[in-house]
Amino acid sequence: MADSGMLLNFDIGDEPLKRQVKYTGGRWRDRLNAQRNAKTGRSGPSSGSNDTPVNTDRRRSTGTAGADDQQRPAKRQRTSDGSTIPPPHRAAANSNNPGAHGAGDKTGPNRFAGKPPGSVTSRLFTSNPVAKTVFEDESKDGAEDAEPAKPSNAPLSEEAANFHALGLSRRIAQHLSSKLEMKAPTSIQKNAIAPLVKDDTDAFLQAETGSGKTLAYLLPIVQRILALSHDQDGNATGVQIHRDSGLFALILAPTRELCKQIANVLEKLLRCTPWIVSATVMGGESKKAEKARLRKGVNILIATPGRLADHLDNTKVLDVGTVRWLVLDEGDRLMELGFEEELKSIVAKIRAEELKTENKDGVKFDVLPQRRVTVLCSATMKMNVQKLGEISLQDAIHVTASKADGDDAVEANDAIFQAPAQLKQSFLIVPAKLRLVTLLALLKSSFARKGSVMKAIVFFSCTASVDFHFDLIRSTTAKSSSDDKTHTVGTVADAAYITGPANTTVKLSKLHGSLPQPVRTATLAAYRDSKEPCVLLTTDIASRGLDVPAVDLVIEYDPAFCVADHVHRVGRTARAGRNGKAVLFLQPGCEEGYIKLLNATNSTTTSYEPILQKGFITPVVLPKDDPSAAEPPTLVTEKQSPNARAEALQLHIEQRLLASDKEGTGSNSIGGNPKLLDASRKAFRGQIAAYATHVREEREHFDIAELHLGHTAKSFGLREAPGGIGMGPTAKRRIHKTGDKKGSGDGGKRASTGGARGGAGKDSDDEGAPGGVDADAARRMKMKMMAAMNAASEFNIG
Q1: Which spans does this entry mark as compositional bias, Polar residues (predicted)?
Q2: Is 401 within the bounds of a domain?
Q3: Domains held by the chain: number
Q4: Which residue blocks in 502-641 are alpha helix, DSSP H?
Q5: Measured by CB atoms within 10 angstroms of the end CB, which terminus of the chain is less buried, N or C?
Q6: What are the angstrom distances between the C-alpha of 367 and each of 241, 364, 428?
């Protein structure tokens, strides 16, 4: 068809043409809102605008963005090296907010905007929950220091009491004064020694931690055995007493570590009576060696219930016919670890044996008790302790630090089970994301001055968490020499991150029940005997009865599973009248109510901010990857402020974990460990599993449904929470296996004591199921935990 030459003219007016945009992708609500905004003439940001960030969500198309797109944060961009970059519109929003952290001085997370991939730190100071607690003014600390609390577990004055006046011989009293430097007894020793020396009655000893309960029952036993061969003035009577004269006392303790400690105290006490012999049977070595020890002869035997019950059944040389004393130390812990059946069996077998009045050498036991005396020691009056008393005690007297055998002593029970009065407790409110850097800052500030803190203990909830934090904080350069042949090669190392100019070397140790017994013994001995500043990372295995000299600081990184365990943990410091400090980490929210439940005296509640300011005021010393380097590297940031160092340290740790996952090797410039990332994930799972095991009365303060999994993962150096948690039977079994490993016990034997944490090794106290947690309640808490994890599926990425 030929062209007709007609021209069509349209009048389009003076208004500019509107660009027609087709909205595709994304959600239908977003597309609908964008179309409505376009029709009503609202000005929305376009993808081509220079002052508006491009939407990086791949599910949405480029084009005009709706109002909801400005409020909903976009996903982070993932780089080739595995790191993530915050969306630029987040940084822009924070920079326009004058109240946001880091605005103005450029010390917050916004200072990393525009940096190349891999150099962007985690946003530690944003999206954190606000604490409900009104923190006290720190200026009050000076007033508190001016009037320190009077020690409640210190020895009495020599004018008030002395050991000889309590019925002990001059030989023992002089030994205590000259060799052990004990001039006067404590309150519990004063009230317990006299009736146990004079009378043949059972006794229930109850006193606060660190008050000297061990000597309160050891001294009467040694005194009455000594009376067989010596008079009150220490002169010999002609009667020969030796190791083969008979077994006179059995002392049961729940853990091997506590057995070792009792044995050490008794060994020092028996140096004035070398003919009285003590020994231990507690597992961790062959029964053949223990039988040989019993065959030679023992006067005082210290044992764990599982191993003693085994010897009573299978070792014929063990004769309990001469036993006069049965001591049950830490009775509440004995019941919590499921030793009830063993204790019933032991008590029944001892009582069934006829009491001998003389030994095979013809030595008469007239000065010894004419009946079997049972002494039960416990700091609490729990129901399980009362049940143990019904099993073992008969017409017992109740001895406390204040009074003995009366209703007033029973009424004083609440006052007895408290931390020492001179102990200064701090409750630190820390958001989940900041827990790791706050812990490092607290340890770094604690060792900032030479001699201020020599020994510190950090408690964790599970063995996996202890292993991870030890591998993370330890120096990456290990000395290779004869040290490799020692038991402590994998449990004692130099620390990084927490050293400083005053203390360039800080020893780091770890202790938990999954370690072999020789390793546990050697590690505890190295920590106790260390002359350098040192930190012990441990589980509840070290919370009971251990008396380590000069422990100045106790940190509960993970709260205890019940108030009783908390008091025992903090009781590792401020012992025998010494001063001490304890810090408890709590998260904002429901955990803050736990402070009122503790009802602690001489305590303060503080925020994490002063800790970061003190800890990161100086550069952070990083792990040295090159053994030949003269000086270890330090953390360098553009702005040398404490908050900048905290964020840079978190970034360094996250990159270190990512580097450890590459190619399965740990050779990189930031001290990578090929197993560190797996250890972090395992520790995270263990922490989540352990969080649900608090006793019923305290679960409202530790609600698993309110635990932020993504923020908690940050405290383990992870960019996101590991996937596969609570997603079926396989994952549940994995959590059960990795959540909290148990001790080896007697030949690997385990017992189910109830609770979500599974069974505890019989002779290992390391993380036995806490009392008061029945099996049904534990299962319900586990199901609740799994539901909460499934609900938080946005963190289960990759």
Answers
A1: 34-55, 119-128
A2: yes
A3: 4
A4: 517-529, 563-570, 594-598, 609-615
A5: N
A6: 13, 8, 55
Q: What angle do CA 510, 513, 519 make, to 5 degrees?
A: 60
CATH number at residue 341: 3.40.50.300
Q: Give the pLDDT confidence of 453-473 residue by residue, as tens digits.
A: 889 999 999 999 999 999 999
Gyration radius of the chain over CA positions: 32
Q: Are residues 486 and 403 in the same domain?
A: no
**What is the pLDDT, as a whole number, of residue 4?**
57
Q: How does residue 65 score in pLDDT terms, banded at 50, 70 and 90?
A: very low
DSSP for 176-237, written as a single string: HHHTS---S--HHHHHHHHHHHH----EEEE--TTS-HHHHHHHHHHHHHHTTTB-TTS-B-
Given 75, 91, 125, the domain boundary residue is 75
Burial 238-247 (b: 16+ CB within 10 A, else e): eeebeeebbb
pLDDT tens figures, 148-187:
566 666 777 666 678 888 999 999 999 999 988 888 898 8
Instruction: Please check whether residues 500 and 630 belong to one and the same domain.
Output: yes
CA dist., res. 270 & res. 226, Å (int): 10
CB atoms within 10 A of CB 421: 16
The three-state (H, E, C) secondary structure of 12-76, written as one string: CCCCCCCCCCCCCECCHHHHHHHHHHHHHCCCCCCCCCCCCCCCCCCCECCCCCCHHHHHCCCCC
Strand-pairing partners, residue 25, are 60
Count of beta carbons in the 10 Å neighbourhood of residue 791: 11
Show which of 621, 645, 673 is a domain's final residue.
Answer: 673
- List the domain range (segments joined by +) for residue 682: 677-795
Q: Is there a domain that residue 133 lies in?
A: no
- The CA distance from 564 to 576, in Å, is 20
Per the structure block, which two tokens stand in for 276?
């009285």
Phi, psi at residue 706, to the nearest 5°? -95, 0
Specify the 3-state DSSP secondary structure of 757: coil
**Alpha carbons 450 and 502: distance in angstroms, whole number:** 5
Q: What is the pLDDT of residue 237?
A: 77
> Torsion-angle region of residue 497: left (phi > 0), alpha (psi -120 to 50) or beta?
left
**What's the pLDDT tens digit per position in 187-205?**
889 999 999 999 999 999 9
Distances (CA, A) of 728 to 385, 504, 683: 39, 48, 20
Q: Exposure of 50 by Cβ count < 10 A (0-12 exposed, 13-18 middle, 19+ buried)? A: exposed
How far is 20 from 34, CA to CA, in rounded Å? 12
Residue appearing with tokens 């408290």: 418
477 and 597 in a single domain? The answer is yes
- Residue 554 sits in the same domain as residue 576: yes
Q: Identify whether 766 is part of a domain.
A: yes
Cβ count near 231 (within 10 Å): 13
CA distance 716 to 735: 17
SS (H, E, C) 771-796: CCCCHHHHHHHHHHHHHHHHHCHHHC
Residue 669, classified by CB atoms within 10 Å of its CB into exposed (0-12), middle (13-18) or buried (19+), is exposed
Find out whether 193 and 167 touch, Cβ atoms under 8 Å.
Answer: yes
Are 402 and 502 members of one domain?
A: no
- Residue 504: count of CB within 10 angstroms of its CB: 12
Residues 395 and 460 in one domain: no
Smallest CA-to-CA distance from 79 within 769, 737, 668, 655 is with 655
3-state DSSP of 386-399: HHHHHHHCCCCEEE
Contact 790, 724 (CB under 8 A): no
3-state secondary structure of 742: coil
Are residues 479 and 425 both part of a single domain? yes
By 3-state DSSP, what share of the chain in percent is helix, strand and coil, each rounded to 5?
Answer: 40, 10, 50
Q: Is residue 442 part of a domain?
A: yes
Q: What is the pLDDT of residues 346-377, one digit of tens each?
A: 999 999 999 999 988 888 999 999 999 999 99
Three-state secondary-structure class, residue 553? strand
